[in-house]
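Holo prediction. Input below; ligand is 5,6-dihydrouridine-5'-monophosphate.
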Amino acid sequence: MDTPHRRWNPLTASWVLVSPHRAKRPWQGQTETLAPDNRPPHDPACYLCAGNVRANGEKTPDYQDVFVFTNDFAALLPEESIEAMPNTDLFKAQAERGICRVICFSPRHDLTIPQMDTAAIRKVVDAWCHEYETLGAHDFIQYVQIFENKGAVMGCSNPHPHGQIWAQEHIPDEPAKKQAAQSAYYEQHGTTLLSDYLAEEMRQQVRIIAENEHFVALVPFWAVWPFETMIVPRRAVARITDLTDVERTHFADMYRVLTQIYDRLFATSFPYSAGIHQAPTDGTAHPEWHLHMAFYPPLLRSATVKKFMVGYEMLANPQRDITPEKAAEILRHA
Ligand code: H2U
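Structure of the complex:
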């Protein structure tokens, strides 16, 4: 597909405009300056390093692998609000309760996921499972969003390897769209949308980047960001706590392999926002859900030129120049 076209994202029911012929346009705009990555293993000024004091005066303990704590500047609070909210057709607001957690992936300030070994990343996966389970067990929590914001260019406030978990009362918009699409698909076909999608991707072999026994990493057909990818379990698993022991390890390993590929792409610590979309924690089975981890990296053609979602993207649709197939080929060769 070399001519302008639009592609359908069946998971979010939205379009992306693809303009392959435009990939060669010259760039005289903004370039990013990536901070040099010469961090010490322990930084006395980092609030996520062991033994240091956080903003609320609490001391980060002398942890050995993964450490999870409640965000001192949480966007959501568990307390019930007694404030009156407007509820008309034109002015509608709802109180939103929740819990925000920060997860330190390692006590080592100088590492990132691609530099950690599978056993260490497996501990991150186990901590995600524990948080999904315990946060989801609160009767006021319907959805648990696990994510990682990596790199200053993504607005990450600290280079210490860490992620966040926001658990809340309502299903937020992105997972809600995916919930609706997967439900409709499952009802019609009796299989998960992503099982059928993955089977077709395995047959075509043009957007696959890496695979192991239980997981596949690929550039989705409907990718928006230049090097957007997705890690999908081969088995239709609704939530991370349903992964078997060996699947958890293979998930950790695919997270490592994919982020290593990313780091090799532009020979830099590759920035991205990544997160797991999975079944809500509303006490129902959700056989329609097929969990996946999405990676949205902003870089476009080098370590210093990023994709801007402005202009047409803000006003109309997301748009991309290099095709997902080309991006997959570049990533496979990285
Ligand atoms: P980001 O780097 O992705 O912003 O995540 C760091 C989080 O850590 C951020 O949400 C929290 C911030 O609120 N934080 C604490 O909980 N305690 C601190 O002492 C500083 C930062």
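The first strand starts at residue 5 and ends at 9. That is the main takeaway for now.
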